[in-house]
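A note on notation is needed here, since sequence and fold are reported together in a single record. The reader may check this reading against the record printed directly beneath this paragraph.
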Amino acid sequence: MLLLAASLLISCSPDLPKDVAVAYASLPDKIDYNLHVKPVLSDKCFSCHGPDKAKQKAGLRLDIASFAYAALPESPGKVAVEPGSLEGSELYHRIVSDDPEYKMPSQKSHLSLSAKEKAILVKWIEQGAVYKPHWAFVAPEKPALPSVNNADWVRNPIDNFVAQQLQQEKMQPAKEADKALLLRRLSLDLTGLPPTPEELDAFANDASPNAYEKQVDRLLQSPHYGEKMAVDWLDLARYADSHGYTVDAVRDVSPYRDWVINAFNNNFAYDKFIQWQLAGDLMPHPTKDMLIATAFNRMHQQNLEGGIIEEEFKAEYVVDRVNTTGVGIMGLTVGCARCHDHKFDPVSQKNYYELFSFFNNVKEAGQISFDGTMPSPTIQLPDAAKENLLRFINDTIAAEEQTIATTTSNA
């Protein structure tokens, strides 16, 4: 069937190379820009036809639809991409050409497109060459369930997508694992811990149709669930209980770690999860938790070496905050634009330092004290007993001050 489909494609498109036609026949029905096309353009095309103006060749940008559809400055009457038309798309002719002086990517780039990559670009053009914003800026939408051949295997909607991918890769589902292995996988995925013998026995002896679902609910209620889920975020937030440079002195930022764990265990809203970490202290009437969350901006390495230049490291700390925000929240490697316009994403060097300015308003030194104490801004976090004691002391002082003021006014 694959060869038949390839031969039909070749008969319809005589200029399509056989290897590209075969690869074309194996592609999914719908080509998605972010999932299929952008990775190809980014890897093989953007170095010469991407966002960086200093590196653009032939005045062509392929990262923005309006430029890709526009007339080519150096090829009058031609466009790089004509949606729906291979014949009218110079990109198509260039990628399938055998002429070393004409084909793209050029020999000087030392890059080349595989047959599958060419097929993806061909099918994308045929389907209208639709561009999409960066994936991190696209609101998620619930997709329609794909229909699959192996419908008897499907037990829940997620299985439709798994079966579709298996079908596309011409693979068969593996047989169902036994209960012990299923619970081990589930426990490690949700809590990072293996199941206990008692938990394994309980699951093995549970013959109810929703036995597995009950195990999912149990593990989601475990405090270890938040610990497991927090690991990836704490990695992104560069969490560490030491300063990182030279003697690597200890710093206790465990309250932030605990806040992240509790956020996952309590299913905390994602928008607030981000807002509190970026600017909890700037929101109206910030709570203690909102202030703790802003430690996200203070997890970078901090230097206490005597010979450093404070202004240099203050700038390095801001750079770290910008880069971490870019990767962790925006899904972009904005750090590339610190030195030049981004090569693969529409982030200019100017954009980088505009973002830099948001984080450059904290009054802090670039050097921390050698005794390892946390530099300002910091907050005190006494436990409940100490909070009650402090409240009693402060209330007593206030009452005595009021007595003194009253006595003074009556004297």
Observations:
- The longest helix spans residues 384-410.
- DSSP finds 18 helices and two strands in the chain.
- Strands lie at 71-72, 75-79.
- The first strand starts at residue 71 and ends at 72.
